[in-house]
Design goal:
It is a single chain. By secondary structure, this protein is α/β, with parallel strands linked by helices. It has a single domain, classed as NAD(P)-binding Rossmann-like Domain (Rossmann fold, 3-Layer(aba) Sandwich). 48% of the residues lie in helices and 13% in strands. Strands 3-2-1-4-5-6-7 form a 7-stranded parallel β-sheet, with helices on both faces. Strand 1, helix 2 and strand 2 form a beta-alpha-beta unit. It is globular and about 85 Å long. The protein starts with a helix and ends in an 8-residue tail after the last strand.
């Protein structure tokens, strides 16, 4: 019996469990990768509000395709912005929007944000504004935005990105000398709501900003015109124009850019279909 127990003990000592190899060290984890920077396309980016938006997005770490008609101004801006690429295009051309979006995808491999900021419309007496003036106003600001949004939509959907349309307070407050711009801005606001409705199901956030009187070359031109018409110096004309809209001061392009940056951020992930008046209190209606 003792011999059998001895043999059994020896047999147990030679089982696989007893001969188990020491535990293997844990597999090395892959090195962490840096998240790919997001990418934006900004139209009307050669000056004014559009340029300020491009500057802010680049400062926030986004790669930006700057789109406008002025190739020289775009190249100068892109040269001083990290991750920026200039793309000269006339968005009144029906083919230009698709080419611009293709350029963004070729350069960045993704598209997270579209900012529609292109478009200046002609002011003047309604009777004096001919069909060509109306067609030009709609061709750039509205039709350009429509075509860019349509071309960019599949890429924005894939990235769960968004669109910010820059319309204008004239779409809310009618003015006899701003019939083209007012109607275009109102149409752009309606487009925002329609695309936001589509975006709820498809993961694309679409919002709109209505700037009030912002210190741009365009506003400076209005101040000069008012100064000449009323025999005022520049400062007095600026003060008179601000008083007519009931605001304490004019806004700065950087203030519109800051709002775009917010809408493009995760902090605004629940903001969908919003039309935000950034106007210093110009619009008092509910």
């Amino acid at each position: 019996m003792a011999a059998r127990r001895s043999r059994r003990s020896a047999s147990s000592a030679s089982t696989p469990a007893a001969r188990r190899a020491p535990p293997r060290p844990p597999a090395a984890r892959p090195a962490p990768t840096v998240a790919e920077p997001r990418a934006a396309l900004v139209s009307g980016a050669s000056r004014g509000i559009g340029l300020a938006i491009a500057e802010r997005l680049a400062a926030d770490g986004m790669r930006v395709l700057l789109v406008a008609r002025s190739g020289a101004a775009l190249a100068e801006a892109a040269a001083r912005l990290p991750g920026a690429v200039a793309h000269a295009a006339d968005l009144r051309d029906p083919a230009a929007a698709g080419v611009a979006v293709d350029a963004a995808m070729a350069g960045f491999g993704r598209l997270d944000l579209l900012v529609n900021c292109a478009g200046a419309t002609q002011r003047g007496d309604f009777v004096a504004l001919d069909d060509a003036a109306w067609a030009d106003g709609y061709a750039l600001k509205l039709h350009g935005a429509v075509r860019l949004a349509r071309a960019a939509w599949p890429h924005l959907k894939a990235a769960r990105g968004g669109i910010v349309n820059i319309a204008g307070i004239g779409g809310r407050v009618a003015s006899a000398d701003f019939t083209i711009g007012g109607s275009v801005n109102a149409a752009l606001m309606n487009l925002t709501k329609a695309l936001a409705d589509k975006g709820v199901a498809e993961g694309v956030r679409v919002n709109c900003i209505n700037p009030g009187s912002i210190r741009t070359d365009r506003l400076e031109g209005r101040i000069r015109t008012l100064a000449e018409a009323r025999g005022l110096d520049h400062a007095a004309a600026a003060e008179a124009l601000a008083a007519e809209t009931g605001v304490a001061r004019f806004g700065e392009p950087a203030e519109i850019a800051a709002m775009v940056a917010f809408l493009a951020s995760d902090q605004a992930s629940y903001v969908q279909g919003a039309i935000l008046d950034v106007d210093g209190g110009w619009v008092r209606a509910v």
